[in-house]
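note to self: dont lose this again. the chain is below, predicted strucutre after it. 185 aa total, dont forget to put it in the shared folder this time
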Amino acid sequence: MATLLKGPFLVIVDGLDECEDHQDVWSFIDDLLDFFKRNPFVPLRFLITSRVEQHIHNHLKSNQVDLKNLVDHCSRNDINAFMSNCFAIEKLQNPVINAYIQEHGDWPTKADKGKLVDHIGGSFIFASALFKYTVDPTNDRLTPMGRLPHTLNMNPGPDTLYVQTLSRLFWLLGSLNFLALGLSK
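---
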């Protein structure tokens, strides 16, 4: 039993930015800071992960908190390797891309992949989402090669990507609804 009390123990709170009630988030942070101010020797540490949201960031400004931007800890090489692997796998599976490569040479070009990696910054979730947006079939009737320039021009934030993804979903739902109406007659 004595070994259980040695600590310190780590509690991870992931996605604090996803909580809808800002007041509850503020209360949680304030209560946590207050607890550790009154009990500095409790062998417990909290690791809170969150996108940089102003309402969270402002409450975490304290000498008790060590704020780190994880984007600064992810190298461009890591994102480049991830994207290279994703594209390599897609090239093996996608006949449209294969046909393009047969006629025009490698895709994406080294320059375009470099722009994409720069555009992504250090976010693996954004890299994954942009890759899927680029290669997954959609209602826009564009090939991945035609969609890549749009991807490079997207605002590098989640809102633009969500709008693009939701517009694809609404098109799909509208198509299914249309098909259902046709089948019910």
